[in-house]
UniProtKB/TrEMBL annotation:
<protein>
    <recommendedName>
        <fullName>enoyl-CoA hydratase</fullName>
        <ecNumber>4.2.1.17</ecNumber>
    </recommendedName>
</protein>
<dbReference type="InterPro" id="IPR014748">
    <property type="entry name" value="Enoyl-CoA_hydra_C"/>
</dbReference>
<dbReference type="InterPro" id="IPR018376">
    <property type="entry name" value="Enoyl-CoA_hyd/isom_CS"/>
</dbReference>
<keyword id="KW-0456">Lyase</keyword>
<dbReference type="InterPro" id="IPR001753">
    <property type="entry name" value="Enoyl-CoA_hydra/iso"/>
</dbReference>
<dbReference type="Pfam" id="PF00378">
    <property type="entry name" value="ECH_1"/>
</dbReference>
<dbReference type="GO" id="GO:0004300">
    <property type="term" value="F:enoyl-CoA hydratase activity"/>
</dbReference>
<comment type="similarity">
    <text>Belongs to the enoyl-CoA hydratase/isomerase family.</text>
</comment>
<dbReference type="GO" id="GO:0006635">
    <property type="term" value="P:fatty acid beta-oxidation"/>
</dbReference>
<dbReference type="InterPro" id="IPR029045">
    <property type="entry name" value="ClpP/crotonase-like_dom_sf"/>
</dbReference>
Amino acid sequence: MDWGTYKTLRVEQDGAVLLVTVDRPAALNALAGQVVEDLWELTGVLAGLDEGWPVRGVVLTGAGEKSFVAGADIVEMSAMDPDTAEVYGRRMQQVTLRLEALPVPVIAAVNGFALGGGCELAMACDFIYASANASFGQPEVALGLVPGFGGSVRLQRRVGIGMARELIYTGRRITAAEAHRIGLVNAVFADVPSLLEGARATVAEIAGKAPTAVANAKRALNAIADLGVEDGLDEEVRSFREAFGTEDSVVGRKAFVEKRAPVFPGR
Ligand code: HXC
């Protein structure tokens, strides 16, 4: 599969896993305009993953062992006027929406600083794993700015409104352990190699399940996040019914009854 070539991203397939590394270590992998454009292009390619399921999960990380992504590129931003900044913010927001719409799960493997736009990028992934040295924060107020890549929306959904307010108003940086305690991070690993190994293992676990069902569950969970109970239940039954119509579900149910492992066709 041709994943494309990118100036600021490394894209490597290893079996069912696509490892995507933001690769600007000299600037702690900050989201320069070029990174945003590369992410835009790559997420466009990945939108078609449900055709043949060449990989079953994406692991997103940063180059090196110091930083995941240290936010928007402050050097570039210092030359922007509000109109240009709006275009930049909007573009990166669109990248986050594309990540959420991918038919496979995306795991953020946070290997160091996840600050500002870096924390926002991680929160656009399905869930977050971290190495013990990782730290998280929305430090925009220290620059006279506010979150602009979805943090105002997604942080409160992940950790609740009170904690989101405190983190955004103070700009405070929190450790991986604290991020785990408040539910921002699912699991903390001792170091970066074990973090990547943990993320790979979870994708391998997902790869044993029905691809259409995982994609369906992701779509439904995202849609339901915006709904009340009744509309959420309607959405759930719609997605449940859709799952019943897939060959994967016929194969899965039959294999259970016949006491053997299913081989999912991915349709
Ligand atoms: C551009 C950055 C950068 C960034 C680090 N660098 N963060 N360049 N944009 N966000 C560069 C530094 O300038 C430096 O380059 C090199 O990376 C190493 O960084 P140091 O500061 O020397 O490292 P250290 O002392 O370890 O401090 C690490 C750090 C600090 C705590 C992460 O770099 C920092 O506070 N960075 C900014 C974090 C931040 O405020 N992010 C939020 C941005 S606002 P040189 O060339 O000197 O070696 C945002 C808004 C999103 O994300 C919404 C916009 C619409």
